[in-house]
Amino acid sequence: MLGRDRPLAAALALALGAVALSGCSRGGSLPPLALRPQPIPFADTLPIHEPEEREPAEIWPLIRESTVGELGQPFDPDDWIYRNEALNVTHFDEVVSSAWFEHRITRRDLSEEEMRLGPTSLEGRPRPPFTVTRLKGAGISPGFWVEDGKGDVYLFKFDPPENLYLASAANTISNRLFWAAGFHAPEDYLVTFDPTFLVISGDEEAPAGEGETPTGDDETPAEEQESPTEEEVQEVLEQTSPLADGRYRAIASKLLPGPPKGPFRFRGTRKDDPNDYYLHQNRRELRGLYVISAWTNHVDMRFANTMDVWIDPPGYLRHYLQDFGATLGSGTIRPHNPREGMEYNFDVWAFLARLPTFGFYQVGWEEKEFEVIDPSIGWIPVDSYRPGAWKPNWPNAAFRSATAADGYWAAKIVARFSDGLIRAAVEAGELPDRRAADTLAAILIARRDKTVDYWFGRVSPIEGVLVECTDASGPGFGVSFEDLGIAVGARYRSDTRYEWELRDEGRGRHWKGSSVPPGAGPSKLHVAPPDAIDACRPASAVEAPSAGYTDVSAERLAVLRVRAERLGPTATPRPRPANVYLAWISDEKGYAVIGLEH
Length: 598
Fold this sequence. Notes:
Elements: H1 7-21, H2 59-71, H3 77-82, H4 112-117, E1 130-135, E2 143-147, E3 153-158, H5 166-181, E4 188-193, E5 198-200, H6 230-237, E6 248-254, H7 284-296, E7 306-311, E8 316-321, H8 348-354, H9 397-401, H10 404-415, H11 419-428, H12 434-458, E9 462-467, E10 469-470, E11 477-483, H13 484-487, E12 496-504, E13 509-515, E14 523-527, E15 537-538, E16 557-566, E17 578-585, E18 590-597
Parallel strand pairs: 1-5
Antiparallel strand pairs: 1-2, 2-3, 3-6, 4-6, 7-8, 9-11, 10-15, 11-14, 12-13, 12-16, 16-17, 17-18
């Protein structure tokens, strides 16, 4: 973590990075990835002045993204200036942990018990009695705020009466999946309780929380709001159904760990947060969120389901995703239908396509008859799921900006979810029977495989590149790497061929060649002129410089471009090559890997 005793140095680094990544690039293309400043882990947690709470109204942002955003995408200056690639990436095409995203499943093997708990804890579970302090205002699902026996505050939300388990299970499962993927998520617990555990408060101050402002959606200050009556609480319970034993089931979302400052947008920056220096649509973790949302069918990924939270000490904004009730097969108060995931609520292009045909133009979902998979699961497709064509209910600027490299980065996260971890997340949803749980787990596994297969096919998924031989004894050197497409089983060695090209202007080298992966182990290339012998001596002293290595000029930089060509009917023709950046180390007369770009 960035040391708190070095805020000035960190701020200077951020300023230099911001200049290099924005203003200096406006005259043309960005410099090579390996020559740009790298993001600093947790640099956006530097102390700032506490911002004011932001108005949560989102009607105009939704209208803008649905109309101007969709129609104006080809003319977006950001696409011209930044070549539409994410800016907050390291020299090895990764993101660092920050107030937006923390590496979890990507850095260590999570246990199944960790997956079942997610961001929650055994100590944090709500304990009766439950004092009802206020009715839930905003949102479509019924609920109320409670203070439990420990003094902690939760928002209780209930399932629709015809589909018990539907929203509460989807919320719990997706809460665990998004948390494990690396995003900040609230502590969401499943709770079943006897209504006799409810106590009506007469003078409690209403809390601020998920989807609502501190004063509520009726603009009445919290201290002036009346406490709910027993009749009002009973009306909320009548909007759901009790379990067979008379108890009620709810999702209990614990109050976030700091004052809410309003939702964050997927476009632009927050002007009163000095730590917020990348345009949100150019942040890789927000672009990659498209892939995680598509996998889990989170059609309601929008402004209103996010929250900036003031964390003090030290005093910064942390950015949360919240309210996962409209994921998987759940539409919160009803099951999903075939339109969701395939078309926006207002899809300007679909509307324009239908207009000349007076509505006779139809897409696949309009002709599709469907039945819910199970009342507790709702409807979530597998066969018709297309990872690159999936759409949320509303357009999203960060999702629209996502490139193949962003999709591949997120697909690497999805690939880390083993069958066992997915089943553990589904177990956390406490569905009514094993059959329903097994069915939903199988759907998530199948959608995971389709997601990984699609995005791994769009790029050349090579990682862990090493220079194994120098050219001190003659022309040519060796390179080894891991082909993740082969490693995760999405592609086969027998169907793979690598085309490579080395450009080193400083040494007058422009070499090309091809290779196939060996029968086992890492893939290898012999990079040399076409007439060079296939041999090189092992490297003795040439090692990759540290992550902070900056002693590389454009003249000393070489680029090895590697394209993983695949065979087969589902293979993407000529996927994007990977650029391996090499620095010439003159003292050792050899190359060292200093960057990777997909």
